[in-house]
Amino acid sequence: MHGLxxxxxxxxxxxxxxxxxxxxxxxxxxxxGHTSILYALRxxxxxxxxxxxxxxxxxxxxxxxxxxxxxxxxALLAAEAELSSTIVELRAGWEPSxxxxxxxxxxxxxxxxxxxxxxxxRIPTRIDVRAEFLAGVEExxxxxxADLMIAVLPPGDLGLAAIELAPLPASLVARxxxxxxxxxxxxxxxxGHLLLTVRGSDPRLDLPTAGLEARSTVHLNxxxxxxxxxxxxxxxxxxxxxxxxxxxxxxxxxxxxxxRPSTHLFHPRLYHRGTVGPAARQLIASLTx
Length: 289
What we know:
Mean pLDDT: 90
Strand content: 15-25%
Number of domains: 3
CATH topology of the largest domain: D-Maltodextrin-Binding Protein, domain 2
Largest sheet: 5 strands, mixed
Order of helices and strands: HHHEEHEHEHEEEEHEEHEHEEEEH
Radius of gyration: 31 Å
Shape: elongated
Structural class: alpha/beta
Number of helices: 10
Number of strands: 15
CATH architecture of the largest domain: 3-Layer(aba) Sandwich
């Protein structure tokens, strides 16, 4: 029973022979003796149990089976080169992985641009980006042992380092033909209509509608679904201005005029545990620069 293992040295010898055309050429490229190349390929054939070289003609050529083995050898060499490069970069201090959890109310475009810059530098760090909402952000940050967290709620872990991000304006809106979009209303009038929320709400947001939220019976999964529900006329609610700029400009959505403010500023912050690697530092710099 023949073993199936092919060594890196055998793979290099077969690759060099096919490209150089002769044993001498392969030996010169690999800076090894002629007999060393012969031995590597003979032991390769012994290991595989079939010939990979056709020695019957004037010049040694690969057999059809040898061509298939060569393709596998080149894949092996490419994987070895990639691994070697990754090890060098990891030795230079790059994190093996970087997990970022962010609140879905925060626009994702700046985060994706920052991730894109890191990817463009071909760093070895694997990047995992996850969206959660409100209290679920910190829960995921803890559960996943994530590296960075972007949240609008203050975390329960007071030992985290915090960096202020740009404030996020939001508006209390309804579809243009909704009764709340016309005229001015008091809190009692708003209580007669459905306030839509994303996975419930949280008193720590300090929204002007906090007194109405206990009556909310429809909790949506994300702000895209919430926008669609408001545009469908199902109810009213808070949406980040960046998500509804077009609808406001075209008059499809209207800010509700009532006895309290119809605008609100969320204050997202970026949190980490105090020690970050180079990939995290670059991501933070991109988001705060």
